[in-house]
Design brief:
It contains 18 helices and 24 strands. It has 3 domains: 201 residues, no CATH class; 155 residues, P-loop containing nucleotide triphosphate hydrolases (Rossmann fold); 129 residues, no CATH class. It is α/β, with parallel strands linked by helices and 566 residues long. Strands 1-6-7-3-4-5-2 form a 7-stranded mixed sheet.
Amino acid sequence: MEQLYNKIIQEQGYNQLVCDIFPKWEDVKDEILIPERKFGSGNGTIHIFLGAADSELRKEFASYYYAVEHGEDPSIGAIRVKHHFLTSNIISMLGYVCQYYYSLGKDVNAHVKNVLSQLAIFANRNKVLTTNSFFKLSTGASKLRPYFKQFDSDGVFVKLIRQLLLPKSGYKISLYKNNQNEYAAFWLIGFNWLSDYEADSNKEYLVPEKILFDDTKSPLQQIFYGAPGTGKSNTIKKEVDDQNKIAFRTTFHPDSDYSTFVGCYKPMMGKGKVYGAQGPLKDNGNDIEEPRIVYTFVPQAFTKAYVKAWSTEDDVYLIIEEINRGNCAQIFGDLFQLLDRDDYGYSKYPIHADADLANYIAEQLKECNRADLPEEIKDGIRLKLPKNLRIWATMNTSDQSLFPIDSAFKRRWDWKYVPIKNEGKGWEIHFGNNKCDWWEFIDAINKEIASKTSSDDKKLGYFFCKPRANETFIDEERFVNKVLFYLWNDVFKDNDPSVFAVDASHQDPTFEMFFNKVDGTINSEVVKLFIEKRNVRIDLIEDSNNEIDEQPIEDLFNQPNAGADS
């Protein structure tokens, strides 16, 4: 409560908190409700009983309590109090009243028109409406009872606030005073199931029906996972880039942290005034400036996407490549809380922004006029993901041991498995004068990987290796150095390297066998033998001269090393 009004309280000089009259949601009493919303009969008198704060009020108004207790008329010493209500809170509650009428099947147009017209009548200073009442003691019971009474008959509370109160609504009230001993009550209207922030800023209920967010086709937060080369990034590209969606990208790695994801102050080259003894130096009336290092907030991918999403109604995508290659807990920090979305696509639990980030966001959003943009979000004080910001990520299952993702983080995402499949590109592998179908090799080697390792994580996807630009085949150098090296180093080395043996007599394979010892070029025949062992069909490359001398297998691995020292 105090935090919501902090800026306003300081501006108006109410620098002393007397007490929180209702620090938690206090149910609205029947006598305050307008007649058609009353549960009971009620006498229509507008007064608010403050018994919950009686002990604190006795301390503050000790002389007034003493006088009344000793027979003085309560009207003589009654204390005048100015009441403050946030305009945004009024708009928010109007939305809930609309929902109340919808649930009863009643038309809301007349009520909305009345409230908005009243809102336009009252002076709106610093987004706050004010009215007056008295803090007054009642002597009608066996003991003194404290109330707010005698509200201005034509004031905000009587004409406007009462129109917003529902049978199950509530309020919080804090009492402050300034150095002149003038008193002010700061109100927040809402419900006991709302946070202070939601009560102040939730405007979505103003529409006839709040539209539930449908994420069946395009989830808000989604991780595409699968084996390397299955086309996870390409899947996102088709959805985002090829459809000309607004997107911001980043890639996580072991050194990624909060500052590289959100932003921080950095030194930048700028200009500054040159000062002399009498102040800024001038040239023809203009300040003289010189290059100098200045510190400025530099936004990173998250902040750029966040600001853009609140600045537009279009969908905005934040793409995180290799999300598990960074420490997500360290990178997201308190942003983790924003990933919990409500049924309408917004963050359930807004968080406070630090001063540097808040100032940057406030500057970027100052011209934004989105209807669902709360003031605290626009001012940068709080962070809350809008319904049009999607965060999509990719994850190689073969790299999941780098930074394990905990279950609390996982459950805030939708997960989409990208399976290994034939993408129909017709790519081939070329080695020497021979060739084979790339997919046939993938299919065969993946079966072997599953058999030898009992895991799908190390399998190859169709896009694990691609042809060079303007080609339709994977050349032998790329195949050996990328595909076979991966199989050797990451898949089979710690399991069963004998799978690289190309015949029964060759039981001690090395990766060097795929290279000619004379000149270091690819040993095409060994590549051929390795592929043949997988029962993959091998054909001759058309237009090749096919003039290859057949060599005994043992000679393929025992060529003289021309590069050795003599």
